[in-house]
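Audit log entry. Action: structure prediction of a protein-small molecule complex. Ligand: LPXRUNBV. The ligand was supplied as SMILES and no pocket hint was given, so placement is left entirely to the predictor. Protonation state taken as written. Sequence taken verbatim from the request; no trimming, no tag removal. Recorded inputs:
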Amino acid sequence: MSERLFHLAEAPFQAARRIAALAPGHRAGRLHGHSFSARALAELPPGWGGFDGAETEALDVLLKRVIDPLDYADLNAHLPLPTDASLAVWLRTRLGNALQAPAAIAQVGIQSTADQGVELVDGEAPGDDQRVYWWRRFELEAAHRLVNVPADHPCGRMHGHGFAVRLLVALDRSSDQGPIDDAASGQIGESGALGDAQLDALWAPLHERLDHRCLNDVPGLENPTSERLAHWLWERLKPQLPALAQVSVYETATAGCHYDGQTYRIWKEMRFESALRLRNAPDGDARRRLHGHSYRLRLHLTAPLDEVLGWTVDYGDVKRLFKPVYDELDHHELNELEQLSDPSAANLALWIREQVVGSLPQVDRLELTERKGRGVLLSWDAVAPSNGKPRLPL
Ligand SMILES: Nc1nc2c(c(=O)[nH]1)N=C([C@H](O)[C@H](O)COP(=O)(O)OP(=O)(O)OP(=O)(O)O)CN2
């Protein structure tokens, strides 16, 4: 079991840019602006940031400081070609300089709109190549019912969702697709392969087949679980888009499925409201006082597909099996939990892991944020080691 704990931070920034290298007439060639979001995942030694438990907030403060020069700025004054990918490289370099070993960045991301962004992922081992992934998100409104669920299961009734689908595309830096800095605002490779217009064109016929339809009527989707839909999309897109790395189906606001052509990974998200004090914080530090957070917890599970039910593990079962743990967390003071030393985000994630491994052995990753974008990601990959494949963004 390879356990890894990453601290997560997020920093919004507002900025203007012009991507001059795009095809004539491309709208991003004109001066325009975005509400960007920068994200970082880093492994930090305990105590980094002042005391044991301060790491997550310290990373958040550092990320905001590093991003600050870009806030309310003209990005072309900082970078010749301020694409999402080159902003990610800019961020990776500056954050790397600001962090010192043994602290280590695992990933940085730049999101330029609600529907588009780039993730720059460091290799697993020193010397491994960094990889850049571009993602784009699409929406569809559809009805469905799950055909093989027990008679009293609510998803057996006809119902519907505003689904979102995220396509993750790998940019191979060593190929002729051009260096990482060439990838323009989500477009892959100025030198060639694929731009947002091409990806939208690949998506359009699929959208036409799925949107404002009953998914059960679509050939191949007779039992349209998130898993089946992710697989169906993969099968249709991959031959035309060899760089496709993952399809993610967001079925509800709290549940969905990733599929990478091999492995299904589902998630179920919950929120809980808790009080805490960090006793490790020094005298006078506000975090020593009783305070509270609105936590968001995302459990990730890896499991084989049940061919009859068409899913891996029922989202409803994840929620039900987690309920006893949830009840200990929600509307409670975390310092009162047994065997939780001091309820920092990292310690709390480790505590939750101990509570779920018995009842939900398929859980191999959990993401816990104490406020938007700030928290930890604990991964132990007990069920599905990466088998030497390049790591997908976390
Ligand atoms: N592994 C899967 N489990 C379930 C799927 C699925 O596609 N794959 N689908 C369903 C239902 O279609 C359902 O609409 C979504 O389930 P769930 O998350 O349980 O929905 P809730 O509205 O109850 O969500 P809460 O946010 O927890 O209230 C069921 N399972």
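Audit: result stored. The first helix runs from residue 55 to 67. The domain at 1-128 is CATH 3.30.479.10 (Tetrahydropterin Synthase; Chain A).
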